[in-house]
Write a structure and sequence with these properties.
This protein is an all-alpha fold. The protein is globular and about 50 Å long. It has helices spanning 2-15, 19-36, 63-84, 88-104. It has four helices and no strands. The relative contact order is 0.15.
Length: 107
């Protein structure tokens, strides 16, 4: 599953002190968490009382959903690179794009 691969790769990147890879993977995992959020008008009505009373339920994010999220992130980086052109920011974006592209090829 892509999400578990990302979590494992994040642990490896952190252990290797690879900040750039860890930053990109964290971003992808954050997108997954956002996709799992269930819209609600009143979070107070979801729980009962106590520490987690404002927590909203989460929906399952399928592997297909996750792949679409990664693909969308890749497309956004491509569009941003077109706008930025060459320069210091583009180098970092290209590196990020390579990291994201690696997850597009996983089956």
């Amino acid at each position: 599953k892509l999400a578990s691969t990302l979590r494992s790769d994040l642990r490896s990147a952190l252990g290797a002190r690879d900040r750039d890879r860890a930053r990109v993977i964290r971003g992808l995992l954050a997108e997954m968490e956002n996709a799992a959020a269930v819209p609600t008008d009143d979070r107070r009505s979801v729980g009962t009382k106590g520490l987690y009373s404002g927590e909203a339920p989460r929906r399952a994010v399928s592997d297909g959903d996750m792949r679409r999220l990664v693909s969308r992130e890749s497309d956004e980086l491509d569009r941003a690179l077109e706008l930025v052109g060459d320069g210091p920011r583009s180098r970092r974006m290209r590196e990020d794009r390579l990291i994201v592209a690696g997850y597009l090829t996983l089956s």
